[in-house]
Amino acid sequence: MHEIRRYNRYTDYMKTIFGARVQKISVDAGFTCPNRDGTKGYGGCSYCDGEAFSPSYCIPDKDISQQIAEGIEFHQRRYRKATNYLVYLQSYSNTYKPLPELVRIYEEALAYPQVVGLVIGTRPDTIDEQKLDYLSTLQKNAFIMIEYGVESVYDQTLRRINRGHDFQTAVDAIQLTHEKGIPCGAHFIFGLPGETKAMMLAAAEVISSLPLTSVKFHQLQLFKNTSLTKEYLTNPEDFTLFSLDDYIQFIVEFISLVRPELIIERLAGEVPPRFLVSPPWGKLRYDQVRILIEKKMEEMDVWQGKFYRKTS
Ligand code: SF4
């Protein structure tokens, strides 16, 4: 039976590009972050635990080729169908080095057999025209995508979580990336302190107006040993963490407001349980939460962009 898609799924987008399943392999290439090394700030974004997102095979002491080999072996055991791999530079800010070092890292990853491209996660204030020009030349032989942590469209929130850049910085980076012809993704968190549901829903229009290819949405999750978690434990009344039901209701409403062409890579966050303080449903596997969201979309007869209105 033909399955009705109520939103644009990233896996379908990848299949359109490559004609087959493509698997991402996380690699930690030893980058740091300007919001941790003192260039923009110390201590990082208040919610950030850099370790929480790295798979066990992904250790910066190992060289890049070894991490790729171990990542492929790991995924081949689980997803036998994948034959093409994208190297995902996820930890910290993966454009935050001088260009010659970036060239060495990116080209070592792309030289690995079976690797068909790179997905580069980074901060919007660690990219420039020269780096983007270089990345656009790599596109002749490989798939290249940049994924920016944007997190919120509100400057007051970005200040509150110590992001160290404003929303306009993200807009400029996304615009320049788009002008260079490089597909561009962005990451957003819902439930950050100080944001009401109305503010979060209003962000759909702003996000839709950006020249983005794809988006990832996460509920706010509090990790052990972060300053945001300390704030939460001291003043829990300042936080409204989404319950699972409330998040599902919210994200379905949100998707109905989002530009229909945007590719949605993620609808919720998932993290290894040992890192998580709250909310407890963050321990559910992403697939379980995704299925609940898809069911709710059906129940409410909602689809991506149902209530989207293009603004000039
Ligand atoms: S920019 Fe990314 S890596 Fe750096 S502190 Fe913030 S969330 Fe962590």
Describe this structure in words.
The chain has helices at about 10-20, 65-80, 100-110, 130-140, 155-160, 165-180, 195-210, 225-235, 245-255, 285-300; strands spanning about 20-25, 85-90, 115-120, 145-150, 185-190, 215-220, 220-225, 265, 275-280. The mean pLDDT is about 95. The chain is globular, with a radius of gyration of 19 Å. It has a seven-stranded parallel sheet with strand order 1-2-3-4-5-6-8, with helices on both faces. The longest helix has 15 residues, at about 65-80. Helix 7 (about 195-210) packs parallel to helix 9 and helix 9 packs across helix 10 (about 285-300). The chain has one domain (about 10-300): Alpha-Beta Barrel (TIM Barrel), CATH 3.20.20. The protein has ten helices and nine strands. The protein has about 300 residues and is an alpha/beta fold. Bound molecules: iron/sulfur cluster (SF4). Iron/sulfur cluster binds near residues 44 and 50.
Q: What is the makeup of the main sheet? A: 7 strands, parallel
Q: CATH-wise, what's the superfamily?
A: Aldolase class I
Approximately how much helix is present in the residues?
25-40%
Fill in the CATH topology.
Answer: TIM Barrel
Order of helices and strands: HEHEHEHEHHEHEEHHEEH
Secondary-structure arrangement, i.e. CATH architecture: Alpha-Beta Barrel
Question: What labels describe this entry?
Answer:
single chain; 312 residues; alpha/beta; TIM Barrel; seven-stranded parallel sheet; two-stranded antiparallel ribbon; 10 helices; 36% helix; 16% strand; binds iron/sulfur cluster
